[in-house]
Amino acid sequence: MAKANGGGAIRIAVLATSAFRRAWLESIVRSHADFHLAGNFGELASLVSFARNTELDVIIIDSNSIRDLSLGPISQAAIVLLSEVHDARSVARLLRIGVRAILSRESDPDNVLSAINAVCEGLVLLSTATAESLAAVYRDQPLEGEDQVSEEITSRETEVLRMLAEGLANREIGTRLGISEHTVKFHISSILDKLGASTRTEAVTLGIRRGLIPI
Questions:
Q1: Closest CA to 204 of 192, 186, 187
Q2: Whole-number mean pLDDT of the chain?
Q3: Which domains does the chain have, with CATH numbers?
Q4: Does pLDDT of 208 surpass 90?
Q5: In this structure, how many other beta carbons lie within 10 angstroms of the beta carbon of residue 8?
Q6: How far apart are CA 124 and CA 75, in angstroms?
Q7: Percent of the chain topping pLDDT 70
């Protein structure tokens, strides 16, 4: 996994009003050798003040209410938010202020770690409920054609797709690209979604048909 600004440990700050939840998030951060816990806070104002004078890569926020978070950007760091957000307008506002992952507060440690990995790779991660709220906005709009869907495949996703065609496992793909297995899984999930494929084999077949994989 690559640091957002290149090299070194991932600098993370944690915010939770509940001392128990804060300690839980701290334990997740401390469990990963590539992470550095830069600070922990029980109030948003304290975090904002700290973030103004400290370089951070990721901020993890556990919150029952997103009202205060809608006021404006906290820092340049990517934000992982654990909260229950179910309306598209709130999701849009949160994305505009730097939230890059929205998870349920019922998420387990592996999900939180996956979210940190994802945002550090420049990805956006949404819980199923949050994603469905966005999808509902566009539910009645016509689907794009095949050519338009193909254009959405990023260069990194194309690399991953071609390695799938080589028969490489997630770990091998991650090693070759210098990214984590979690990130590889996110890329593959995105590829399947964009190509409308249900399996890796089907994705490769569609990739060949659309000229994404040379033969």
A1: 192
A2: 83
A3: 10-136 (3.40.50.2300), 146-209 (1.10.10.10)
A4: no
A5: 10
A6: 17
A7: 85
